[in-house]
Fold Putative dehydrogenase.
Amino acid sequence: MTEQKATLGVGMIGYAFMGAVHSHAWRSAHRFFDLPLTPRMQVVCGRDATRVAEAATRFGWEESATDWRDVIARDDVDLVDVCTPGDTHAEIAIAALEAGKHVLCEKPLANSVAEAERMAAAAAVAAERGVRTMVGFTYRRVPAIALAKKLVADGRLGELHHVRAQYLQDWLADPEAPLSWRLDKSKAGSGALGDIGAHVIDLTQHITGDRIQEVSGMLETFVKERPVAEDSSGLSATAGAGRGPVTVDDTALFLARFAGGAVGSFEATRFATGRKNAIRIEINGSKGSLAFDFEDMNVLHFHDATLPDTEAGFRRIVVTEPEHQWVSGWWPPGHGLGYEHGFTHQVVDLVRALGDDTDPAPNFADGLQVQRVLAAVETSSDTRTWQEIPV
Amino acid sequence: MTEQKATLGVGMIGYAFMGAVHSHAWRSAHRFFDLPLTPRMQVVCGRDATRVAEAATRFGWEESATDWRDVIARDDVDLVDVCTPGDTHAEIAIAALEAGKHVLCEKPLANSVAEAERMAAAAAVAAERGVRTMVGFTYRRVPAIALAKKLVADGRLGELHHVRAQYLQDWLADPEAPLSWRLDKSKAGSGALGDIGAHVIDLTQHITGDRIQEVSGMLETFVKERPVAEDSSGLSATAGAGRGPVTVDDTALFLARFAGGAVGSFEATRFATGRKNAIRIEINGSKGSLAFDFEDMNVLHFHDATLPDTEAGFRRIVVTEPEHQWVSGWWPPGHGLGYEHGFTHQVVDLVRALGDDTDPAPNFADGLQVQRVLAAVETSSDTRTWQEIPV
Amino acid sequence: MTEQKATLGVGMIGYAFMGAVHSHAWRSAHRFFDLPLTPRMQVVCGRDATRVAEAATRFGWEESATDWRDVIARDDVDLVDVCTPGDTHAEIAIAALEAGKHVLCEKPLANSVAEAERMAAAAAVAAERGVRTMVGFTYRRVPAIALAKKLVADGRLGELHHVRAQYLQDWLADPEAPLSWRLDKSKAGSGALGDIGAHVIDLTQHITGDRIQEVSGMLETFVKERPVAEDSSGLSATAGAGRGPVTVDDTALFLARFAGGAVGSFEATRFATGRKNAIRIEINGSKGSLAFDFEDMNVLHFHDATLPDTEAGFRRIVVTEPEHQWVSGWWPPGHGLGYEHGFTHQVVDLVRALGDDTDPAPNFADGLQVQRVLAAVETSSDTRTWQEIPV
Amino acid sequence: MTEQKATLGVGMIGYAFMGAVHSHAWRSAHRFFDLPLTPRMQVVCGRDATRVAEAATRFGWEESATDWRDVIARDDVDLVDVCTPGDTHAEIAIAALEAGKHVLCEKPLANSVAEAERMAAAAAVAAERGVRTMVGFTYRRVPAIALAKKLVADGRLGELHHVRAQYLQDWLADPEAPLSWRLDKSKAGSGALGDIGAHVIDLTQHITGDRIQEVSGMLETFVKERPVAEDSSGLSATAGAGRGPVTVDDTALFLARFAGGAVGSFEATRFATGRKNAIRIEINGSKGSLAFDFEDMNVLHFHDATLPDTEAGFRRIVVTEPEHQWVSGWWPPGHGLGYEHGFTHQVVDLVRALGDDTDPAPNFADGLQVQRVLAAVETSSDTRTWQEIPV
């Protein structure tokens, strides 16, 4: 007879896009991986009682709630999963940590460095009591990215010279695409920079094991006004106005120097027509190179420059062998994974860290460092100067 | 308050690779799609009581059982999902149908045309009582394949001339890869032909809406003896022998004529070194062409020859827009799906058909037709003649 | 001062497409490569005196002529380059050989095995007098193909199991594309089979170092009648008829067994909409695989299966390093070659063989062997049986 | 009888890599294209009498010379083709213009803005007398680039938002690669910036029809010292020194704003391991996008965002149809061109402009503008500020 495992009670705040995929991960992780604790989906929380109750049923949560403070107060909740927009992260996460709950928080960690600093400080205090934090940079959990990191760590690329990273989407390329809260700086903090740029900042630092030291950035808002969205409460209040201002960046570009000497070129945009979710990363070192594109997420291209020149070339590694990280939980070689698997792997790694009583990665301190890079890019764009990132 | 939906009690026979992915589908389908009946994972069945009980826990089945006859006899089981090897399909499926259970059966439908004919006959009888059958040709449920079918059906390819289909794997390329039951004709029926060739036969007929009329085929076993596998009961019985015979094909190739006039070239192999699960389909018509490779499963390449020559080219359609079949249940554009999604879509389509009281596709009659093509290829290879496929 | 090299007087018969590219090769080879003899472009021959004189001026020939017998009779002509349609190859080539001229003949060698046998016999006789022959299978001279052959010869693919070869064009996909002499069997001998299928037969035998032993083939003519071309003398004579019959194959497919045990799947077509000149070859062996597509002609994809599974993958070798065959005559790495370079390399190899007094490859005997494969495919298609190729 | 065309006497200064490919172009252009003047390869000039005489024979020049002033003085020279390193461009080109000779000058136009200004001024004076200038930005003459420009000009991309351009090579990635004059600032002016960065500056401005308005740049020299090359006269004079300093940039990166509102990200490097001559350009507009990579030079990827979302995708246009610029001079569809064809097209366009008495493009004024962008990037890197480019 199989031993009954301890459980991990989870409460999730928010139930939109991120809520759906987080729910899937909580439902699925222990079905495919051996976990020290079995997640128990206790409660999902949202402001609209009817809709959150429907979400609970659909996503498989035992109960629903409308006040996140109630969730935090529950004894049967060990971990709070924060899937709300960025402007609420700090308040919820800090309260949860103070209540002794582990916190998994969606990225970017916050809408400002100040908020992120408070969150990281709260996490540091909580960590002394064994309470853990994690930030949802899930793209780290794509097996091809894990292989990329391993190849760099194993020295297969030699000394790193170039980092080239782009996160390209196109959902704003149409100037008639309507306003949403994501285009309102007071809600979203920033535009492409924080929403998707944060991912490639984290990914490149993660893969290289290095950190961005200074940046020269440029933000641009191509379409300054857009049609007001019918279901966007805040803006539609503007009497009689058919259009409203876009107050965040449509694109962010920056040059970077890494502490280890590599140079970087970064770009995040929602205007790259035809690119849907193209997270593209290239790294060139003295002994080899890597190339990745999330639009072909099960593949990593690796050039081994130590092979004879006549035989060398970028090789298309289909990262589905069981030896690759997380893959043995899934299917035979060539049977690829999809977007949500990164979230399942995130739960796996988080629950295993909790079981081992070790710190998950990336934690709130890591999230704060990314926030500082984001802020440096914004300041650089405003002041037209290079900006160093404080260590 | 949400209305309580009727449930569909499911009993699954087998719990290996196919059992794992079918379980995932039964667990997940109603989380992402509106279904007329909510699947209830009643019981999973296998011969080893301990292991099947563990599988039940891991996969989320309420109970386990060791005799499939008990499963069929249960009142709380409405549908039997057959995930066992091919030599047991006929017995289980026919019994289930006779007991009034809907049956979802893994492919190929059977190990012989005779068995498949009995199954199809039983299905026809059962259908008169509203009992439904489905065969697990899940690759039909990849959104890019659905788009391919739609483009052909909409006339976008014009008159079809060429079908080129390959299912390439490489797990037997190493001559020291051990024997398994899959290489034993008495268990598996055939080798690459039935295991993977069946998929491309079904896919090309599905996409074209046409059927294969005649074939000229060639089977080959490159490695005639292999090391006996330690955990392969049947063969390891051979006293003192370190190697045993491979009694199925390593590869199957055939030329084909479709009823509508197109010519086809087919290949299935486990010796295509470097190709892990490459289901590659190309179709050329008078007005356009399609190309698909499962190793990049979220993409369909479409050439529209009605565009000006100077602008025409194969276009890489990332099939993740919400308008594509099944996609609106998942993630935003560019956030790709993986292997198991096809199985989830299979459950969706099956349950919806049951809810509508319509016939799912492909049903056992369709499975029989594929079986006839497989048999014709074998006969053709044996007799070195062209073989017609009976309608 | 540089020593004056001996010259090689060349007379070319025909001045259309092949004439243009052959002229370029004769003009260019000694500009990029050290040759033992400097080609001298003495005379070009065609039936229309005005047009052939214009061609001489444009292409850089010293004189023009209207009777190929006059060309063969000239003392200043050492080599006859036959660029005419296939139905004239035998007569011209045999006469030239008998006159003691080396002969470079376009492919396919002839329109029938009987003709090809006579040509090969004449070549054998001539060879005893040091007179050499070559057949224009120029795609052998693409550096990526030379690398493919080298990798196989070096054992990097291990034992060969699969050969997959397609030559795909689309210029007949439009049913209103007019008739030309290429669609008239009396002139062209065959359709896609001889015109382009011959190339992939030669290429696969060349790369593998093996030969096709038996075939099962299928020819098809999708569009049986086409508009008569206004400038097609023979057919437009048909009184009042707006359309005429297509008497050759639109496509040829065949399965093959190689003498060494590999199985092959071949296809040649002019109906693969969107494929312009796609010569696609894949070879799978026990230790590795190759893939080539002429539409990306400077690249060879190589999978080395002896690498660890976690790192293996098809690598995209850009075949532009100076160590690759012929490449040092050209540009730095990454500066790719084009279609005509194969013809220049053909002249290089031919002239060097003449300088060394060795036999060029492929010679007329090799051309005859390819002709026998073509004939076997036709017979197989007619008789619906497997056909062996005589050695 | 064909009319005898007027000739254009050409004198070429320099006979290394650029000399070889320019010679090929002068030899070949009138063989494939109708030109108003037939080029006559009168004289090639270099300092070493023996070697330049050999080059004349090999490349097909009638005579050789050792003093470029003698070339300029010849009556039978109508055009001077400057293929020397950048530090000699100004002196030779200005003298040639003053002597009334048309000048084709390799890129970059000069090693400094001051030199380039003097050259452009001389060109302006000469133009009044009908004397023409051209700068050798040959990549403009790749048919896929011409198609890119046409699509933008036709409004197919809508309003342009993003320009992404990289010129990636890897020949310096090995830190033991020896010094050459190209790594000596006094000879080469700059490193990757001027040598290859100049090309992508020209290409992006050419394709977009826009100009770069301001830049923020960063230069980096990864390997500061290298082994002295044995055949490098200047540096090997350093007594006893085994290594010498690299005085130019290994890589140059910059952000840019175009006058029309697009933002740009540029990169030029000789350290992108595995990329041999990868000129990669992507442009995103409101209605469509383009992507090009010179490593697949016959292809342009075009995304037409005005198509339905479910069908849109980057299409791989094989730019070999006769309707594309320059292509009708060559081969049938699918028979690709190579690196040197751009140079042949350059001669075609130059000679046609001379025949029409119109100004070729790009002329010295265009070359000066590129020089100003290069200088702005250098200044920006030195001062860590944004720099405007004077109009």
User: Anything to note?
Assistant: Chain B has two domains: 7-138, 143-388.
